[in-house]
User: Which sequence fits this backbone?
């Protein structure tokens, strides 16, 4: 199964300067969880840097926030501000709710943090990428962040569909990439991902051969089943 996404089609990938170095662990720790105080500090940071956001933002007596969107020209920063308003207000971006939506796990978001240095937060029912201060990705980082985000979302979808058990790790990434027909040289992002997990091309070769054998086994089972059905029809 080919996965035509930004991380397979982009010819470049530059690890953002915010990204941490070192081998990937199990990514079991919680990542991207923020409390109300953190959200309000991020809002304050955005308002200080962009006065136009501050002019649109107000707080009600009950502690909820209002963001005036009348005639507003949107930007990455203003979208981030609105997301930071929606979360403490317990509002969703989606007008039809988020039931059935698939979200990245804590481990997925920890991997994203290591690859990019940015946080993948769930704000207003949507995945929003911000740095620790509440700012959206810098222009120089956008392509790389998008590739990492697309990959993490695909991992979450694969897990939800039953194609991946648990968190992505050095032990199972080879089998997953082999099933997606991806490997060393597929794209700069995939090569960086393999370096992050410290997985060598030789390791992936074994997974690829196993995946091909599994597909062949499934095909032979299907052929055998069809032969049995044809035989039964003849007898009848």
Assistant:
């Amino acid at each position: 199964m080919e996965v035509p996404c930004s991380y397979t089609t982009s010819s470049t990938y530059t690890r953002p300067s915010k990204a941490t170095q070192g081998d990937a662990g199990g990514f079991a720790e919680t990542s991207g969880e923020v409390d109300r105080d953190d959200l309000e500090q991020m809002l304050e940071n955005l308002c200080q840097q962009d006065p136009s956001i501050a002019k649109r933002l107000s707080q009600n007596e009950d502690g909820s926030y209002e963001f005036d969107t009348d005639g507003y020209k949107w930007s990455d920063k203003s979208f981030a501000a609105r997301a930071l308003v929606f979360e403490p207000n317990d509002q969703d971006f989606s007008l039809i709710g988020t039931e059935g939506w698939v979200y990245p796990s804590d481990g997925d978001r920890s991997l994203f943090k290591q690859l990019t240095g940015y946080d993948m937060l769930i704000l207003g029912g949507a995945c929003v990428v911000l740095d620790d201060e509440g700012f959206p990705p810098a222009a120089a980082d956008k392509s790389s962040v998008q590739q990492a985000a697309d990959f993490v979302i695909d991992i979450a979808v694969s897990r939800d569909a039953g194609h991946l058990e648990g968190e992505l790790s050095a032990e199972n990434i080879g089998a997953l990439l082999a099933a997606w027909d991806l490997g060393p040289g597929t794209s700069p992002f995939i090569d960086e991902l393999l370096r992050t997990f410290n997985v060598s091309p030789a390791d992936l070769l074994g997974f690829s051969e196993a995946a091909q054998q599994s597909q062949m086994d499934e095909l032979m089972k299907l052929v055998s089943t069809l032969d049995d059905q044809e035989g039964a029809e003849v007898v009848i």
